[in-house]
Design a protein that fits this description.
By secondary structure, the chain is α/β, with parallel strands linked by helices. The chain has 2 domains: 54-277, Rossmann fold; 327-639, no CATH class. The protein has helices spanning 3-6, 8-34, 37-52, 67-75, 126-129, 153-156, 170-179, 199-209, 229-243, 259-267, 271-276, 279-325, 328-388, 407-476, 489-497, 512-525, 528-559, 564-607, 610-639, 642-675, and strands at residues 55-60, 91-96, 101-106, 118-120, 143-150, 159-163, 186-192, 218-222, 254-256. A 9-stranded mixed sheet has the order 4-3-5-2-6-1-7-8-9, sandwiched between helices. Strand 8, helix 9 (229-243) and strand 9 (254-256) form a beta-alpha-beta unit. Helix 3 (37-52) packs antiparallel against helix 12, helix 13 packs antiparallel against helix 18 (564-607) and helix 14 (407-476) runs parallel beside helix 19 (610-639).
Length: 676
C-alpha cells in the first residue's frame, strides 16, 4: 500500500463537491430569472461555503510527544520545526497554497482590535512558533497562530492540518477547546510510548473531548521504535487497555508508529521504511473516516439546504404565474391589502428577536451571579489549599549565597520556583472546583435552551403560516396555506437566513439550538471561568514577586547562618510565612476583580449564544423580503406590457421544467450519497 493508495478517496470527495457546486450554479441561474435577490444571495453563500469546505484535522497532545514530526511525516516534507529541544508555542495551520508562504496572526488587543497578519518566509517559521530554550521571566508570545500555505498533495486534497502547542498549559487548552474543537472534523491525539497515557492526558479526553461529541478519536502512540523489542507487546497491551475504551473505534483507533521513520522514509522515497513506520495504516483509517463519515455530512447538509431552496422556487412559480395572469387593478388591490399583514410580520419579527434578547439578558444575569458566587467561595478554599500545599522545592537557606550582591538573585530564583509550584497546585485545585460549576451552568443552559427552542419554534410556525397566507392571498385571492413543510419552522428559517457559518454547514446538522449549546459547552469546557482565575494567578507572580522577595530577604539574611535543626526550622518558618503572604495577596487580588471577572465570564458565554438571534432574525427578514421582491418583480413585468407578460409566463414554464429536472438530479445525487 503506497501513499497514493492511501489518499485515493480524497479525489472522489472533491468530485462529489464539484458536482454539487455545478448544481448550485444552475439553481443560481434559475433564481436570477425569478428575480428574487435574497435567494440568489443565499445560493451564492452556499456555493462559497461548499467551495471552501475542507477537512480540518487537529493534532493535539502534551509537550515532547512528537506532534510536529508526525505532521511533517503526514505532509511528506519538513514544514514545521521539529527537534528534541524546541516546543511549539502557537497554533500552526497548514493549508494548500500555490506557493510556499506563511501568515503570522497577532493576538487581539484587550479592546478587540488586531494587527494585520504578517507575511514571513516559511524557512523562518521556527523563529516565531517555538518556545525559546531559556525564556526570560517576561517571555510572552505576541502571536495567535501561523497560517502556512504550501503546495502539498495532502492539502491539495482539501485537508487542513492543525498543530497545537502542548496541552500542559491552561491557556493552550482553552484556545484549543474554544477555538478549534467545535469545528474540526477529526482529532489525532499523540502520545509517546515512553510515557503512555498520563493522568492529565486521560482527563482531557474524558472531560473535554468526549463531552463535545468527539467519539471517533485517533490515538497515536508515537516513538514505538524506541521501545525494546521484548517490551513492545507489553506496551501495546497497556496502551490498548487504557485508550481503546476512550474511542468509539475501539482497538482499531489505537496506532503504534514511528513518526521520525515515516518522515525520513518519505524524504528518502523509501516506501518500505514508510510502511514499517505504521503511519500508512493510520492514514488509511483517517482518510476513510474523513471522506466517508465526515465527507458525507459535508455534502449532504448543503444538499438538503439546496433541496429546500429548490422547493421554495417550485412553489413560487405557480404564484408568479397567477399574479401575471390576473388583471392589473385586481393585482394592485391585492398588493395594497398585503401591506398591513406585511407590517404585522415585521412586528412579529421584532417580537421574536426581543424574546431572544430577553433570553440572552436573563442568561447573562444568571451566569454572572453564578460566577460571582463561585469566585466568592474560592476565598476560604484558597487559604486552605495553600496551607495544605506540600512544596517539593521549597525554600532552602543552605543554597542561598549570603553575599549582599548575590542574596537577592539567590532568593529570587527559589521564590520563582516555589511560585510556579504553587501556581500548578492551585490550577489543579481550581479545575476540580470548576468541574462542579461546569455541570451546574450547563444544566441551566440546557434547560433554558429547550424552553427557548419550544417558544421560538411556536412563534416561528405562526410567523411562517402568516407568510404563506400572504403569498396565497396575493396570488390566488384566498388565504389558504401551503401543505405541510418537509422541514421544521426553525430549519426553514435557517435555510432562509443563508448564514455562511464560520463553523461550516455540518456543524449545524443538529439544528441551530444544538449548535448553540455545543458552542456554550466549548466555552465552558475551555475554561472561560477558570481561565479568569488562572490569569490572575499568572499575573500574580509578576506583580508580587518583588514585594515578597523584599519581605523575605531580611529574614533570610539572618537565618542563613543557622545550621542543623535550627536551619530546618528556619526553612519551614520562612516557607510558612511565604505561603501566608501568597495566600493573602492572591485572595486580595481575586477579591478586587470578582465583579469584572464575573461579568466577563457571563459575557463570553452569552456571546457564544448570539448566533441564535442572528440566524433566526435573518431568516425572518428573508421571508418578508422574498414576498416584497416577488411583488416588485411582477409589477415590473406588468409595466412592460402584455407581450412581456406572455413572454414571462412562457419563461416560467421553462424554469419549472428545469427545476423538475434539477430536483430529479439532486434526488439521485442524494440517494447515491446515502448509499455510500
Amino acid at each position: 500500500m503506497t501513499t497514493t493508495d492511501v489518499r485515493k478517496n480524497y479525489a472522489a470527495f472533491l468530485d462529489k463537491r464539484n458536482t454539487l457546486i455545478s448544481i448550485i450554479d444552475r439553481q443560481i441561474t434559475l433564481s436570477e430569472s425569478l428575480q428574487i435577490d435574497t435567494w440568489v444571495e443565499n445560493l451564492q453563500r452556499l456555493k462559497q461555503r461548499v467551495s471552501n469546505e475542507s477537512f480540518k484535522v487537529l493534532i493535539i497532545g502534551e509537550f515532547k510527544r512528537g506532534k510536529s514530526t508526525f505532521i511533517n511525516a503526514m505532509l511528506g516534507k519538513d514544514i514545521l520545526p521539529a527537534s528534541p529541544i524546541p516546543c511549539t508555542a502557537i497554533i500552526n495551520e497548514v493549508k494548500w497554497g500555490q506557493s510556499p508562504q506563511a501568515l503570522l496572526h497577532y493576538l487581539k488587543h484587550e479592546d478587540g482590535s488586531q494587527k494585520e497578519p504578517k507575511n514571513i518566509p516559511v524557512e523562518t517559521i521556527q523563529e516565531y512558533v517555538v518556545i525559546p530554550e531559556e525564556p526570560d521571566d517576561n517571555y510572552t508570545n505576541p502571536y495567535e497562530k501561523v497560517e502556512i500555505l504550501y503546495p502539498l498533495e495532502l492539502c491539495r486534497s482539501g485537508v487542513e492540518v492543525i498543530d497545537s502547542p502542548g496541552l500542559n498549559e491552561h491557556a493552550t487548552r482553552s484556545q484549543v477547546t474554544e477555538g478549534y474543537l467545535p469545528i474540526v472534523d477529526a482529532i489525532v491525539f499523540v502520545f509517546t510510548c515512553e510515557a503512555l497515557a498520563s493522568e492529565s492526558e486521560i482527563q482531557f479526553i474524558e472531560k473535554t473531548l468526549k463531552p463535545l461529541g468527539h467519539e471517533d478519536l485517533f490515538f497515536v502512540c508515537n516513538k514505538f521504535d524506541r521501545i525494546r523489542d521484548k517490551e513492545k507487546e507489553r506496551v501495546r497491551k497497556f496502551a490498548i487497555s487504557k485508550l481503546a475504551p476512550l474511542t468509539s473505534r475501539g482497538e482499531s483507533g489505537v496506532f503504534f508508529i514511528s513518526a521520525s521513520n515515516a518522515l525520513d522514509g518519505r524524504l528518502e522515497e523509501d516506501d518500505k521504511r514508510v510502511a514499517e513506520s505504521g503511519v500508512l495504516i493510520l492514514e488509511r483509517e483517517l482518510e476513510e473516516f474523513l471522506t466517508n463519515d465526515r465527507g458525507r455530512i459535508k455534502i449532504l447538509e448543503p444538499t438538503k439546504e439546496l433541496q429546500e431552496l429548490i422547493s421554495r422556487a417550485e412553489k413560487t412559480i405557480p404564484e408568479r404565474r397567477a399574479m401575471l395572469q390576473i388583471n392589473r387593478e385586481e393585482l394592485e388591490r391585492r398588493f395594497q391589502e398585503a401591506q398591513e399583514p406585511l407590517k404585522n410580520l415585521q412586528i412579529r419579527r421584532e417580537q421574536i428577536t426581543k424574546r431572544i434578547d430577553q433570553f440572552l439578558s436573563d442568561m447573562r444575569t444568571r451566569i454572572c451571579d453564578d460566577a460571582y458566587e463561585f469566585f466568592s467561595g474560592l476565598d476560604s478554599k484558597i487559604e486552605v489549599w495553600i496551607e495544605e500545599c506540600e512544596l517539593e522545592s521549597g525554600i532552602d537557606l543552605a543554597k542561598i549565597n549570603p553575599a549582599p550582591w548575590e542574596i537577592q538573585k539567590s532568593v529570587k530564583s527559589q521564590v520563582q520556583t516555589v511560585l510556579s509550584e504553587i501556581e500548578d497546585y492551585l490550577t489543579s485545585k481550581l479545575e476540580e472546583e470548576f468541574s462542579v460549576w461546569q455541570k451546574k451552568v450547563l444544566g441551566y443552559v440546557d434547560s433554558r435552551l429547550i424552553t427557548l427552542k419550544e417558544d421560538i419554534d411556536a412563534r416561528a410556525s405562526e410567523f411562517l403560516r402568516e407568510v404563506d397566507k400572504i403569498r396565497s392571498q396575493i396570488s390566488t385571492g384566498s388565504a389558504s396555506t401551503h401543505t405541510q413543510e418537509a422541514v421544521s419552522s426553525i430549519q426553514r428559517l435557517f435555510y432562509a437566513s443563508g448564514v455562511n457559518s464560520t463553523q461550516g454547514a455540518s456543524a449545524w446538522s443538529g439544528g441551530v439550538f444544538a449548535f448553540a449549546r455545543n458552542t456554550v459547552l466549548a466555552s465552558v469546557l475551555g475554561g472561560t471561568l477558570i481561565g479568569s482565575t488562572v490569569t490572575i494567578l499568572a499575573g500574580f507572580a509578576g506583580i508580587f514577586l518583588g514585594p515578597i522577595i523584599g519581605l523575605l530577604i531580611p529574614i533570610i539574611a539572618v537565618a542563613v547562618a543557622l545550621a542543623g535543626n535550627e536551619l530546618k526550622t528556619a526553612n519551614e518558618r520562612i516557607e510558612n510565612r511565604f505561603k501566608e503572604e501568597i495566600s493573602k495577596k492572591f485572595r486580595e487580588e481575586l477579591s478586587n476583580s470578582i465583579d469584572v471577572q464575573s461579568k466577563q465570564v457571563s459575557e463570553n458565554i452569552v456571546n457564544s449564544l448570539k448566533d441564535i438571534k442572528n440566524v433566526i432574525d435573518r431568516g425572518l427578514a428573508s421571508e418578508i423580503k422574498a414576498i416584497e421582491q416577488q411583488i416588485e418583480s411582477v409589477r415590473k413585468d406588468r409595466e412592460k406590457g402584455q407581450a412581456a407578460v406572455n413572454e414571462k409566463v412562457q419563461q416560467l414554464d421553462t424554469i419549472s421544467k428545469e427545476l423538475n429536472q434539477l430536483k430529479a438530479e439532486i434526488d439521485d445525487f442524494t440517494n447515491q450519497l446515502t448509499l455510500l
